[in-house]
TrEMBL record, chain A:
This is ABC transporter permease. Pfam families: BPD_transp_1 (PF00528). It is found in: Cell membrane. The chain crosses the membrane at residues 27-50, 100-121, 207-228, 261-286. It comes from the Bacteria. The keyword Transport applies. Residues 94-283 form the ABC transmembrane type-1 domain. Belongs to the binding-protein-dependent transport system permease family.
From TrEMBL, chain B:
Belongs to the binding-protein-dependent transport system permease family. InterPro entries: MetI-like, MetI-like_sf. It comes from Kineosporia mesophila. The chain crosses the membrane at residues 12-31, 100-121, 133-161, 226-253, 273-299. Its main location: membrane. Residues 94-292 form the ABC transmembrane type-1 domain. This is ABC transporter permease. Pfam families: BPD_transp_1. Gene3D superfamilies: MetI-like. It is a multi-pass membrane protein. The keyword Transmembrane applies. It is found in: Cell membrane. The keyword Hydrolase does not apply.
Amino acid sequence: MTAVLEAPSESRVSSQVALWRLLLRDWVATGAALVLAFVALVAAFGPMFVGDEAAQQNLLDANAEPFRLSDGWLNVLGTDALGRSVLARLIVASRTTLSVAVPAVLLSLVIGSLIGMWAGYHRGRRETVVMRIADIILSFPSLLMAVVVLYIFSPSSANLILVLAITRIPIYLRTARAESAELQSRLFVDAARTFGTRSSAIIFRHVLPIVLPTLLTVATLDFCFVMLSESSLSFLGIGIQPPSVSWGLMVAQGRTYLQTAWWLSFFPGLAIVVTTVSATILASWARLATDPAQRWRLTLPRGRRGRRAIRRAAEKALTPEVQ
Amino acid sequence: MTGFLRRRAITSLLPLVAVLLGVFFLARLTGDPANLYLPVSATPEQRQQFIEQNGLDDSVWAQMGDYLWGILHLDFGESLRTGESAATMALRAFPATLQLAFSTMLIAVVGAVIIGSWAAYRPNSIADRISSFLSMTAASVPDFWFAIIGVWIFAVGLGWLPTSGVTGGMASWVLPVATLVIRPLGVLTQVVRGAMVSALSAPYVRLARSKGAGDLRVVTHHALRNAAAPALTVAGDLMVGLVNGAVVVETIFGWPGIGKLMIDSILGRDFAVLQACVLLTAVSIFVLNILIDIGYALLDARVREKVSA
Amino acid sequence: MLSPPSPRKPLLIAAVLGAALIVSGCTVANSEYVTGGGAGGLRIVLPEEPPTLEACQSSLTSTGVVLRSNITEPLVERDADTGELAPKLATAWEQTSDDTWTFTLRKGVTFTDGTPFDADAAAFTIDRAVNSDLGCEVEGYVFGDTDLDVKAVDATTLTVTTPEPDPILPLRLSFVEMVSTKTSTTEKVRVPIGTGPYEVADWQSGQRLSLEANPNYWGGRPGYQSVNYVWRAEGSVRAAMVTNGEADIATSLAPEDGAGELAVAYRNNETTALRIQADQPPLDDIRVRQAINYVVDRNTLVKTLFENLATPAGELIPEGIVGYNPDEKVWPYDPAKARELVAQAKADGVPVDTQIRLIARTGQFPRIAETIEVIQSELAKAGLNVKIQMMDTNTQLTYQIRPFPEDTGPYLLMIMHGNQAGDAAFTLDQYMLREGYQSSWGTEEFDASIRDAEELKGDERQAAFEKLWPYEQEKVVQYAYIAHMSAILARSASVSYQPDSATGDEMRLAEMSPVS
């Protein structure tokens, strides 16, 4: 067991090159990576090209149906209730969406995981205090916090990120705590401790690499949760304030038109789904790829028989390691 | 065990008070409710009278003291909106939410374990890919889509189910539970699958296999148990979310639960009701967390046993 | 040892706990669900549950729509179509001196608790609603801080005296719903005892409110023996309930909610407008306020977002209210002129670049968010720096009602005003006077003309009110009126009912009957 878990330290450089090759072998994961890259590019450069079109209202051409090229390619996804191009708005919204969701997820991920690992590693009173703080945040009505911060202060992006991040911190905190509490009793951590390694070093060198894949899985799933939370804040008018636009806001505003103009909330919703699913696929692929015990699965040749043969071989090869 | 419970109950008391205090102060930051409850043309004297009647003119600390004193006498205050006792309102709404939460989690856990294990049994296979894809999509689709589209298809279109409400017997449960279950099912399936993939390739599982344990037995007896810990964490968090009230579902389906009550009392600046709701949900969440920790302890004991074996 | 001793324990515990909770929960809730049923009765779905049915809160929309003229009744009621007052619990009334009105009450009416309705009961109710410390909504809405002197002369004669002559006192009293003398005077009650065609049979908070016909009603049997109210916040669900046959009437729908052929649109009394907080620069410059008026494209808004269910407005009250000017002048849409006015103001040193907030309330009316975005974009084109801020009701009200918050900077406020009373005085007092509770601006001259007009009666009153609207548009410009609105309800084919402009505040069940 120990041997397997300590394995990742071997030759970093070569394994990175191999990662790329592995990625290209897996067409689903490659697709997911391409989608994410595309979304990032659109968010970075798209608004430069269609920023004006996204704000251009034309009430006389409101709720035009999608998939018709007669009104020009910008209206290919239809127009919204104010006659603005849904496509252009999707593009502009991608930047706002990512600039709220990514910092919110990262912030809660970093803060939650660090505190969680620290608490789980030390256990005892520190752990209790941290866990009870997590309980406080979890049982606190997040909506009340949102209302206070966003009505009483201002509904700015920074405040939005803050509210979303705080409410999600306990999720990482608890996950990281649970895993690192289990790890700290393991042999290799004990060994490091007896050699006098500082606890922060043990956490970063030994605990983090093992906990990280799980945390990243949670984070990618959380990514969509944050986007949808932002959307539900828009129902109360405390999300992104128009004329700025995010996918969540588009979904929220289009909801009332689900029956008459489904495309208003369908396309932004689809954007959220596609982005999150791609992120999750890539994360679960990365989880396999960075886990030496699992990596062989990705190197399998296509076809059933070959795969089974190789798996048997791999299992045979690994079995003797068990104590 | 009893020692553990006692310790947990004591260490939970302080956070509970912290939640209450936090809600108390934050709620009072949202502005005094006079505008909502007094007529638009209320004179300054009427305003002052309203504020005094509701004890909002004291310092926040004095109000807090009064409130805590009231709680000790099981007096949770009165609703500004309805004039009823706040505790009555919260207690009336909570069972509806709990029922939804438990039915949802039961279905989600059972479903996730079955689908997740099946997918993990052959990682990267077609079955795995399809179930992963579906569960990821399920986890990221806005819930009101399901709710509204479900109403059209199954209530308006096919006429199989009532659109909303709680008076239609079991049939009225289908749409709310189905809407609620989708995200937890998606997330949990992902978690179970991930944990199972690791567990199935862990040394002791391989050992069990090499000793001739059947596939099904390996999955159910060995791997699943090891995958239970992360699933328990995530399921616990999801459950906490549900206990706090499923606002969207309760709103759309007219389900008289605590989520809707909390939103209404926040928007209505109905502080007493809000505090009663939070107290109730917070206590349940603390109890839930204790249950989860007991679950961990049991799992842990077995994990330890196994490693030493 | 690979198979541990008790593998299923935690799962078992969880399952038992879960099952126990579900079972216990079910029994708690189901006992409530099963009772009562709407079979054969009328089923109405509202957007929200009435917070209370306290009679003196009847000017709250969500209370009044259930309560008024159904459970309790006033002395006189206003006919929404003609604007005339009609007898209800009073059969006649006249102004017997400058400051006193005398009412003759209907004979043979009893409350549903058996107590008779007489002058004492009427005096009791008016005292309770207007002169007490209950803090009733009605008191402030209709009477301001005026106290009334109420006397029961004999069993059927009541006199009401006001400190100042009040030509529209009967109209004001049409908001006071009569309750039994057994009603508490020290606290508000959730379920009132009235004289109306229905009484409350069963109120399952959060779920359902059932009314039963009052067997001893003086006005004869209503069309339905029982009426069930439920509430759903989501418009499309309300509409679906009617199309699906789960409800007969659904109120407050938006055009896109999908009620289809069952949708009935009707004019309500609501008028939307932007209130310009004119004491703050740059809005204190009349050219800026005029520019704002020139860029609100009312005709296009009405044609598109409001789906022709509204009409462009040039005053704050719609047709049918005393004081409405039929020669209503709507500001033309002229962005070029607006830009020019802003540029002129800028040249004179007016800080037109200051950020102006455009404040609206979430869910104020259907498509509020879209409307606000259109207005913001037009204002920006005129050269103003406008930022949208959506608020919840309580936060928005702090900006709408005096005392206004301090240090807010300039803001424009989307308001929707519904004159429930039928007389422009209710609107003018609050929205037009310099010190009005919902007014931030005015002139001394305008105040004086309003006060003079309110002293008048009959045709003179109408003529004097009519002149005020053009004056406001030319000299004061505190408002950019937008449109006189409509509402939509869904009505099942089995119900005969025609909504009128007062339906949103008062939905008379007695006017509903099964289609035979």
